[in-house]
Amino acid sequence: MTLEDLGWSEDLARQAPERSGLRPARVASVYAARVDVWTPEGPRLASLRSRAIREAPIEGGVAVGDWVLVGRAGSDAHEVVVEAILPRRTAFLRQAAGERAEPQAIAANIDRVFVVTAVDSDFNIRRVERYLVAIAAGGAEAQIILTKSDLAEDVAPLLEQVSALAPAFATSAKAGHGIDELVARIPPGTTAAVVGSSGVGKSALVNRLLGREVQLEGAVREHDGRGRHTTTRRELFRLPGAGLLIDTPGMRELKPWLPAGSQIDDAFEDVAGLAEACRYRDCGHSGEPGCAVRAALDAGELTAERFQAWQKLAREQVELSPRQATFAAVESKRHGRSMSVALRKRLKDKGR
Ligand SMILES: Nc1nc2c(ncn2[C@@H]2O[C@H](COP(=O)(O)OP(=O)(O)OP(=O)(O)O)[C@@H](O)[C@H]2O)c(=O)[nH]1
Ligand SMILES: [Zn+2]
């Protein structure tokens, strides 16, 4: 396996700091205090240098798909240390569980993210929209997979509905439908991820792609120093003759995290475009004269559900923003401190 097989590119090579003795590797699984990485020499278990975490130019912690620079750890060739984490091209971020407004990175450096949703009673277009917001914010391209097509008499109506949001296609892991189409959408050298609620059939699809019956549960057990054991399933797969695929754990309720500079409107171009045509810049779309959004609603060109989904997501972001600002302040302080430590060290080294 070459670095290119793992998704390495000239762009990444240019961005990687020149540090002698360090080699690029890609994160395949994340545990409490360690990560599995892939290197051209094979998989390695890696510990994380705390300085690498402190100075990481990333949001939401190390994630599957991240590129890192590793060095040898002592005499054991199979143990490595992550010395630096490289900047990301793209990411899929959500709000971490809990009260604090914090991002959690689910996947990194992905070219394309597939929102997976089943055609059974679980189907919910509003949920798909939330995933699309997170994908657009993170800079990857979005597509939609309708799974379990064997359960529907006719997938065409649902397919038409989701196709309005992003390129979409139907699959059945059970019947083996749409699998070749999925592979064709993950060309060699690219990385894709599947995201969606628990039980929509992500793992079944991955198994199909790998041509096997059951996904092997991750066999790695790790001791994080506090007597707690964590078992994680493998999440990064290389598809024969195609690119790489990241399987993500099923999410209960997705709250997208928008990095600075991105906005919900990136995934709601239809509504945002209408809002721009309103007479008043600060139109509340609640009866103001010259409201293009109302006009579209009245004309049936925009559904009330989609309009409300846009409002709800926008409201969530407004509620989040003060807490997000607090988080940003803490972060910049943290970076400022680690930078001054680095600076002090440089000055000290110079003075020697
Ligand atoms: N009828 C039918 N059932 C399927 C299909 N794909 C998956 N299932 C079933 O749906 C259930 C969930 O499938 P998984 O692949 O484990 O779902 P997942 O999205 O990986 O779920 P998490 O691991 O919780 O994220 C299982 O009982 C599967 O047998 C399909 O194409 N057709
Ligand atoms: Zn308006």
Describe this structure in words.
The protein has 9 helices and 15 strands. Helix 3 links the parallel strand 8 and strand 9. The protein folds into 3 domains: 76 residues, Nucleic acid-binding proteins (OB fold (Dihydrolipoamide Acetyltransferase, E2P), Beta Barrel), CATH 2.40.50; 138 residues, Rossmann fold, CATH 3.40.50; 88 residues, Ribonucleotide Reductase Protein R1, domain 1 (Orthogonal Bundle). The radius of gyration is 22 Å and the shape is globular. It has a 6-stranded mixed sheet, sandwiched between helices. The protein starts with 9 loop residues before the first helix and ends with a helix. Helix content is 31%, strand content 24%. About 8% of the residues have low confidence. By secondary structure, it is of the alpha/beta class. Zinc ion binds next to helix 8. The site of guanosine-5'-triphosphate has 17 residues, from helix 6.
Shape: globular
Q: Unreliable runs, pLDDT <50, ≥5 residues?
A: 213-232, 339-347
Class inferred from helices and paired strands: alpha/beta
Calculate Rg over CA atoms. Answer: 22 Å
Average residue pLDDT? 85
Cα distance spanning the termini: 43 Å
* Widest beta sheet: strand line-up: 10-9-8-11-15-14
Helix content: 25-40%
Q: Class of the largest domain in CATH?
A: Alpha Beta
CATH-defined topology of the largest domain: Rossmann fold
Number of helices, where a helix is a run of at least 4 consecutive DSSP H or I residues: 9
What's the total count of β strands? Answer: 15
Report a brief summary of the structure.
It contains 9 helices and 15 strands. It has 352 residues and is α/β, with parallel strands linked by helices. The chain folds into 3 domains: 76 residues, OB fold (Dihydrolipoamide Acetyltransferase, E2P) (Beta Barrel); 138 residues, Rossmann fold (3-Layer(aba) Sandwich), CATH 3.40.50.300; 88 residues, Orthogonal Bundle (Ribonucleotide Reductase Protein R1, domain 1), CATH 1.10.40.
